[in-house]
Design brief:
The chain is of the alpha+beta class. The protein has one domain. It contains three helices and eight strands. Strands 2-1-6-7-8 form a five-stranded antiparallel beta sheet, with no helix packed on it. Strands 3-4-5 form a three-stranded antiparallel beta sheet, with no helix packed on it.
């Protein structure tokens, strides 16, 4: 991206292109809270897309066998990958997960030497389900 394109991209990612950025962040927060409440009781997360059918498990250490972080991209201001994972993992229509260590600052309790961030784009035929219930289909949150 050119410098001007990147500046516009960051402005959109931060909702600075909205008439009321604070209200846009509040709406996003409400959507994310509802999603968090929907996923909290899930025992199995499954991610499916072309070339992907993932139920995470690794053997680095006991904690590496667990999902340390799951994020569902809900930021519609981020419309393409930028190469910066802190932005890319929030792109609407994607799912981001980290295998291994979780962050205690966000309530995580998993301990591991591993923290491996992965992003899967679900916008073109992908699906995320929790305990068999579809949560995201083709990049869109289900009702």
């Amino acid at each position: 991206m050119s410098e001007a394109d990147y500046a516009a991209f960051v402005n959109a990612a931060l909702f600075l292109d909205h008439a009321d950025p604070v209200a846009a962040w509040q709406r996003l927060s409400e959507r994310q809270l509802a999603l968090e409440q929907r996923l909290a009781p899930a025992r199995e997360i499954r991610i499916e897309a072309e070339g992907t059918d993932l139920r995470p498990a690794l053997a680095t250490d006991a904690g590496a066998r667990r999902l340390g972080e799951l994020g569902i991209g809900t930021n519609t201001g981020i419309d393409r990958a930028s190469g910066h994972i802190l932005l890319d993992e929030k792109m609407a229509g994607t799912v981001h997960l980290a295998l291994g260590r979780s962050y205690p600052e966000t309530g995580g309790t998993n301990v591991s030497a591993l923290h491996w961030d992965l992003i899967c784009d679900l916008r073109d035929g992908g699906r995320l389900s929790a305990d068999g219930e579809t949560i995201v289909q083709d990049g869109q949150l289900t009702a």
